[in-house]
Write a structure and sequence with these properties.
- This protein has helices spanning about 5-15, 25-35, 40-50, 70-80, 85-110, 145-170; strands spanning about 25, 55-60, 65-70, 110-115, 120-130, 130-140.
- The protein is α+β, with helices and mostly antiparallel strands.
- The strands form 2 sheets. Strands 1-3-2 form a 3-stranded antiparallel β-sheet, with helices on both faces. It has a 3-stranded antiparallel β-sheet with strand order 4-5-6.
- β4 (about 110-115) and β5 form a beta hairpin.
- α1 crosses α3 and α1 crosses α4 (about 70-80).
- The longest helix is centred in the last third of the chain and has 26 residues, at about 145-170.
- About 20% of the residues are buried.
């Protein structure tokens, strides 16, 4: 391949096509940088260009950017995916085989907060499984610090909270 940046874009598209949930920039970066395919800045450039071209969508949730492949991204990968070597595809497939549950859990538990029109802060907590909301809670609190703390605790304690809700409601 003549343009390495094109290869990095195809790797990102390939990774996103191999899962049925969004991946964060950090998750993609962890794999690509660990394998030393490219540098952090070049990877950020590749991801930025994929987003600008409409091949990938990005959704920012707190300090994480969740990426998903678009229909155009899938079509592009169908045309040019053969330019990714079999060894790189094998590395990616093995990475997902070893880490899929952990990766899925990282993006299935979402917590964010914002200031509402009433001046309160609202913590929005979600737990998803295969794109379906299992729990979707919004809690109004008086301070940003409390909202942030709720979001942090949701990341750590979501399974216990979910189990408690189920045991109390059923």
């Amino acid at each position: 391949m003549h343009d390495p940046l094109t290869l990095y874009k195809l790797i990102v598209l390939y990774m996103l096509s191999r899962v049925d949930f969004p991946l964060t920039k950090a998750q993609i970066g962890d794999f690509i940088l660990e394998k030393e395919y490219t540098t952090f800045l070049t990877l950020q450039q590749a991801i930025g260009e994929l987003i600008d071209a409409g091949l990938v969508t990005a959704q920012s949730i707190r300090n994480r950017t969740h990426l998903s492949i678009t229909k155009d991204g899938k079509e592009t990968l169908n045309f040019f995916g053969n330019q990714i070597s079999d060894s790189i595809k094998k590395d990616i497939d093995e990475f997902f085989k070893e880490n899929e549950i952990e990766l899925r859990n990282e993006v299935s538990i979402l917590a964010d907060y914002y200031k509402s029109t009433s001046g309160e802060y609202e913590a929005h907590l979600t737990a998803k499984d295969k794109g379906i909301n299992l729990v979707d809670i919004t809690i109004s609190v008086p301070s940003e610090e409390t909202a942030s703390s709720i979001c942090d605790n949701w990341q750590r304690k979501n399974q216990d909270i979910y189990q408690y809700l189920i045991s109390q409601l059923f």
